[in-house]
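Entry:
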Amino acid sequence: MDAWLILLPAFVLSALMIFTHTYFGLHVLARGVIFVDLALAQVAALGVSIAFLLGEESHGTQAQLYAFAATLTVAFAFAGLRRVPGKTTREVIIGCVYVVATALTIVILSRSTQGMEELKSLFNGNILWVRWQEITLIAIAYGALTILHVVYRQNFHALSFDDDDSRRPGFLWEFLFFATFAIVITLAVNVAGVLLVFAFLIIPAFSASILVATLGKRLVIGWIFGVLGSTAGLWLSFSADLPVGATVVSVLGLLPLIAVGIKYLK
């Protein structure tokens, strides 16, 4: 019982992230820009590293503002990706953003004696020690963004799932999508780390896509897979004294294989 009380905050946060991130992950898969979430997560980490170099607390409000500014700037640029001809070219642009943001983060943090520890924290996170206050703030923000996407669901759905370019909303709606995406990622990176954020965004959504075709079913199955996988990963990390983020990601990595096995049996 004591173990589950310790794990409860991390479990609640994981469930919140899975609920929101699976939705965005399905959009990313439909668009074919798989690494855009990883790039945004790394840009958020770059913003935090800049704040850290300037003497700010890496998990404080100022660092969050730096991360928001960095991700919103890149989100504005990513909103124009549809105008870039060729899927390969778009992926190259996203990859360059990720690589450069990672390199700049390493360079910036190398200037501090605690920089490498901070870099490790940004990648792996420390979700086991998340506070209820942080969870509450994330829940409020995620709830507001969920309401926005429900109210304007037709516009957001058309952006990613409508093959007819003439029926897609314009640039401002595209920017709003990436801006909300950036906010979700920035809040998550602060407590969960880059690796776990990327895993929650892609793996449950991809696993569900192996099994079912419709968006609604993919959401539900992605949520179930994600919650089960994260719960197993958290418990394994706690009981075996393993790194939290890396352990949860490793367990989540089994989900596509499980989905393939279920599909084969069916």
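The mean pLDDT is 86.
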